[in-house]
Amino acid sequence: MKMFDLSGRVAIVTGGNGGIGLGMAKGMAEAGAAIVVAGRDAAKNAAAVKEIQDLGATASAIAVDVLKEDSCRALIADTVKRHGRLDILVNNAGINIRKQPQEYTLAEWHKVLDSNLTSAFLCSHAAYPEMMKAGGGKMINIGSMMSIFGASFTTAYAASKGGIVQMTKAMATAWAKDRIQVNAILPGWIDTALTQRARQDVPALHDSVLKRTPAGRWGTPGDFAGIAVFLAAAASDYVTGAAITVDGGYSVQG
């Protein structure tokens, strides 16, 4: 369908070399977008680019350190230099440090907030003028179900992901007049490297997730291909400021 066609569009996915980011990148690639995989690990970047190219799509990688403002801005500039435009930005890069709140150091707090929230602001800030030149654009910010819930071991992570939702709403109201839609996706429990480590740290986690999730399974990165295409395409031109859960029903359980 034309409203889901991303042909001629250029998309950046930070943290796009694995997990949810790669799942979204592959979905948009199959819809016709040229993909820029943005991450620190050159080997993972190259492997992700090959996976996307194997789908018959255009893909390249740009190294980025989202903790550094100049690196975030260079990512946007290099993308436009290579492709001539920027239409879609997925702010997916993020980390977690699992500790009880009293165990955090200030440096750890800042690292999580800067990796998850400040980086999304910096990339969006740099992308805005380029999307204006393109006549509009789509920004997709990755929150979490921890944007909604609390957990004792996610103080900094939850703060950053709650911030993602409120930043999304503020940017959406500011930039709607510029034909830029800004939305957030709130993943549930997804089978990624990050949650595999969580299951090692929290032994009862696997069973508790399955018990509470109506879908009866963990999510997969591929479950994000469709929502990525929707939020990146003309189909969502009147959707902005939304925070959409992709969690198999986890968040609607009492």
Structural overview:
It is a single chain. The chain is α/β, with parallel strands linked by helices and 254 residues long. The protein has one domain: NAD(P)-binding Rossmann-like Domain (Rossmann fold). The protein has 8 helices and 7 strands. The protein has a 7-stranded parallel beta sheet with strand order 3-2-1-4-5-6-7, with helices on both faces. Strand 4, helix 4 and strand 5 form a beta-alpha-beta unit. The longest helix is centred in the middle third of the chain and has 29 residues. The chain is globular.
Please name the defining characteristics of this protein.
seven-stranded parallel beta sheet; single chain; 8 helices; Rossmann fold; 45% helix; 254 residues; alpha/beta
Summarize this structure briefly.
With 254 residues, the chain is an alpha/beta fold. It has eight helices and seven strands; from the N terminus they run βαβαβαβαβαβαααβ.
Q: Which secondary structure elements does this structure contain, and how are they paired or packed?
A:
Blueprint: E1 10-14, H1 19-30, E2 34-39, H2 42-53, E3 59-63, H3 69-83, E4 88-91, H4 106-134, E5 137-142, H5 155-175, E6 180-187, H6 193-201, H7 205-212, H8 225-232, E7 243-246
Parallel strand pairs: 1-2, 1-4, 2-3, 4-5, 5-6, 6-7
Helix pairs in contact: 1-8, 3-4, 4-5
